[in-house]
Amino acid sequence: MLIGRKAEQRELLRAYKSIYSEFVAVTGRRRIGKTFLIRETFNYQFAFQHSGLANQNTRVQLREFRQSLINYGMTKCRIPSDWFDAFSLLSELLNKQAKGKKVVFIDELPWMDAPRSNFVSALEHFWNSYASAHKDILLIICGSATSWLINNVYKNHGGLHNRVSHRINLAPFTLHECELYAESLNLNINRYALLECYMVMGGVPFYWSLLERGKSIAQNIDSLFFNPMGKLHYEYNELYRSLFKNPEPYMNVVSTLGTKRIGMTRNEIISEGKTLNNGSLSHVLEDLEACGFICKYDCRYGKRNKTIYQLIDNYTLFYYKFIQNNAGIDSNFWSLNTNTPVRNAWEDLAFERVCFEHIKQIKQALGISGVSTKIYSLRITDNPVNGKGAQIDMVIERDDQVINLCEMKFSTTEYTIKKEDDENIRNKVAQYSEIRKTRKAIHVTLITPYGIKENIYQYSIQNTITADDLFKE
């Protein structure tokens, strides 16, 4: 059953119905559901389908490509001598098929580009000399190595320049889509449990497919992550090595960003991560952003602009906090550590990330879906008000003369605004007003799962957003 992905399906079908040949590239992180989307959309009916092999040389790749040609009707087929020969054989196969749009699906395409294979040049030649010269070819390429596709296809300055007619980037599921998926799996879990699960795994469908009926979320997390035989116990290394041919620089940057909840500037990444200040860092940051592991935003601080990079991948943050340096940890760790300081601190941070992944729903709850906004976090250190400093979880600068300063508070019940909370909120408003010199109205917004409990301090909050709001479509 295909959950969500309606816009992506429409884009694929629009390409299929075109009167010309179309070139589609589908990107997205590992296990996000790219292959499943394409197969379900076309009901597993392809003129040709092939999947590249991880960490194999050109000889092995070509041998397996031959096997795919045989599987789709080329009974007498030699092993191609190179990729130009391989795509020539594919052209022969397509020429023999019946009239009508022919869907050619090449999955995990980046893995096929072994060193010195001339794979990209051969793909260019196939598209330019054959596919685009016909009107009946829908070429769909796909791969988890988003950075490879961006640099070798999207940014190609040779024969593939501007050839991709449809770019589809598959994002993680939202809370709403995860709820639908959990229902389809008959997991029978409430929204609080769904939220906790999302804070750990994010919206990666494959991770959710591993949840077992009859187990609590805590039991599932223990069996998947903390049991040495768990299916996601070693996911971290597999994840980054599947996306990047040289994963160490990426893992270094991600590890560095994992130390600061509010994000870091480029110079801070260089200083704290011992990363060289050269062009390769820009390349790494661009790739991580394209793959959805980090986000980038410009934060105005007085008269200065700062570009902030922030780690937003839920699973990676969970890994750094609880798994990375905990060899030999109890396989029932999660069940045994409810309401502990370290877990409570993680829950606050993880809930912030969930909120940043649901900006659309937050704006909808505020009634500003159609208003242009700029959204970022803010860390104030050298402030002119009282020298205390301040950290604002989320700032929503709106074009309708209002600014929302958002506080995220994770709680299992209605959140109670205490005196110190009220003082902290007033301090943040004062410092932000002084630094930004803004004339816009400032509204304090509280985002918390179960809303706010009535007391004398609640009136410092103009808007309250709950978990139910985050679960909206």
Write the layout of secondary structure elements.
Elements: H1 6-17, E1 22-27, H2 34-41, E2 48-51, H3 58-71, H4 83-95, E3 102-107, H5 119-129, E4 137-143, H6 146-154, E5 166-169, H7 175-184, H8 191-201, H9 205-209, H10 217-226, H11 235-243, H12 248-257, H13 266-273, H14 279-290, E6 294-301, E7 304-311, H15 314-323, H16 333-336, H17 341-356, H18 359-366, E8 373-380, E9 390-398, E10 402-408, H19 419-436, E11 441-447, E12 463-465, H20 467-470
Parallel strand pairs: 1-4, 1-5, 2-3, 3-4, 10-11, 11-12
Antiparallel strand pairs: 6-7, 8-9, 9-10
Helix pairs in contact: 3-4, 4-5, 7-8, 8-15, 8-17, 12-14, 15-17
Per DSSP, the total helix count is: 20
- Please give the alpha-carbon distance between the first and last residues: 18 Å
Main sheet makeup = 5 strands, parallel
> How are the strands ordered across the major sheet?
2-3-4-1-5
Question: What are the low-pLDDT stretches, counting only 5+ consecutive residues below 50?
Answer: none
pLDDT averaged over residues: 90
Shape: elongated
For the secondary structure, the number of strands is 12
* Beta-strand share of residues: 15-25%
The percentage helix is 40-55%
Structural class: alpha/beta
Rg (CA only): 25 Å
Which tags fit this structure?
elongated, 20 helices, 12 strands, alpha/beta
What does this structure look like?
The protein has helices at 6-17, 34-41, 58-71, 83-95, 119-129, 146-154, 175-184, 191-201, 205-209, 217-226, 235-243, 248-257, 266-273, 279-290, 314-323, 333-336, 341-356, 359-366, 419-436, 467-470, and strands at 22-27, 48-51, 102-107, 137-143, 166-169, 294-301, 304-311, 373-380, 390-398, 402-408, 441-447, 463-465. It is an alpha/beta fold and 473 residues long. A five-stranded parallel sheet has the order 2-3-4-1-5. Strands 8-9-10-11-12 form a five-stranded mixed sheet. It has a two-stranded antiparallel sheet with strand order 6-7. The chain is elongated. The two termini are 18 Å apart. The mean pLDDT is 90.
